[in-house]
Design a protein that fits this description.
alpha/beta; TIM Barrel; 11 helices; 55% helix; binds erythose-4-phosphate
Length: 218
């Protein structure tokens, strides 16, 4: 399973990169705004900085909701760096744009997926990635993991190349359950990734190893 980090924060991206397990980055307009990045030039420069840190796919989302606008924005984003994946919402013009980008060799991430039907359409249009939002489904008392399993079955039935990018990951159990089901990628905050490290028996065991070493070595 590929590990993406879901942030526009350069320090966190660098920290995840330094861990040696980072395969890519996802951003969205809310995450960019959280970092105070505004204005076309600053936004473009920020994407370039992210692409310089990570050797992997970096999702950059279009703001337009009409076909022509999405194509204009997406083509400009794709020209910034070979790592850029154009992130497009699952709406009618979005599907048309994904088909256009796919036909023209531009990678896409179809975002805001909350149903299997949406994921099926995105795959038919040729999306590189599809992003089901697990955490936001959990927030409305619907098991986000059921959607990941449903999409996995559908994509396997027809051998779609589209990768399932489990998004809106909130905690380490989301990551583990996604891995069990067979999501191709997960994207989440650094805290959910590093939480995978935690186990009290590891802490106790390491403390004992170090204490025993000290006993005989001073
Ligand atoms: C996906 O690409 C989105 O950026 C993201 O995972 C949304 O997560 P949230 O529900 O925590 O905002």
């Amino acid at each position: 399973m590929k590990f993406f980090i879901d942030t526009a924060n350069l320090e966190m991206i660098q920290e995840a990169q330094d861990l040696g397990i980072l395969d890519g980055v996802t951003t969205n307009p809310s995450l960019m705004a959280k970092e105070g990045i505004s204005g076309n030039e600053n936004i473009i420069n920020h994407y370039k900085k992210i692409c310089e840190i990570v050797d992997g796919d970096v999702s950059a989302e279009v703001i337009s909701t009409d076909f022509e606008g999405m194509i204009r924005e997406g083509e400009a984003l794709a020209k910034l760096h070979s790592n850029i994946v154009v992130k497009v919402p699952i709406i009618k013009d979005g599907i048309k744009a994904i088909k256009y980008f796919s036909d023209n060799g531009i990678k896409t991430n179809c975002t805001l997926i909350f149903s299997a039907g949406q994921a099926l359409l995105a795959a038919k249009a040729g999306a590189t990635y599809v992003s089901p939002f697990i955490g936001r489904l959990d927030d409305v008392s619907t098991d986000g993991m059921d959607l990941i399993a449903q999409i996995r079955d559908i994509y396997d039935n027809y051998m779609f190349d589209t990768e399932i990018l489990a998004a809106s990951v909130r905690h380490p159990m989301h990551i583990i359950q996604c891995a069990e089901i067979g999501a191709d990628v997960m994207t989440g905050p650094l805290s959910a990734i590093t939480a995978l490290l935690n186990h009290p028996l590891t802490d106790i065991g390491l403390a004992k190893f170090l204490a025993d070493f000290k006993k005989v070595n001073g």
